[in-house]
Amino acid sequence: MSDHDNANLREELVRWIPNLRAFALSLTQSAQHSDDLVQDTLVKALSNLDKFQQGTNLRAWLFTILRNSFYNDIRYKKYHQTAPLDDVDPVNLEFRATQDKYIEFKDVLKGLGGLVPEQREAIILIAAEGLSYEEAAAVCNCPVGTVKSRLSRARQRLEEYVNGDKMLPERVQ
Fold this sequence. Notes:
The protein is about 70% helix and about 0% strand. It is mainly α. α2 packs parallel to α4 (about 60-80).
């Protein structure tokens, strides 16, 4: 890879930081943990730029690194018993919107937090980030049909939650 290609790749990588932060926040449910996860992702990406294949989707590559880092951290913490896995910090955000929109947005955020991680990442990758089913499947390392199923269940559960129906725990396939 030439120095020019490397510089362009670094510029494009910086462009995806806000998207990485949003995806990390959806996974961790914690602003502090999501920032740490994004930083870890960027360090790994920069140190492995030579492994990125030109012409492929940089965003999907970055999301895959972030997702793998997230689940590797969970496995590490579970194995080493360093912290409870369900110790989730609340997301502290400031909103400048009408009260109705604020309440609706808080409901959606709370509903997202109630989804199982696989459903939450499917809805974030596809609905919020605009990845195709195929790209999301590559990031999640699962078949396209599984991503479609997770997305469908996530949308249904979010709609039920926002409409006032009780969200019930669901088993992940």
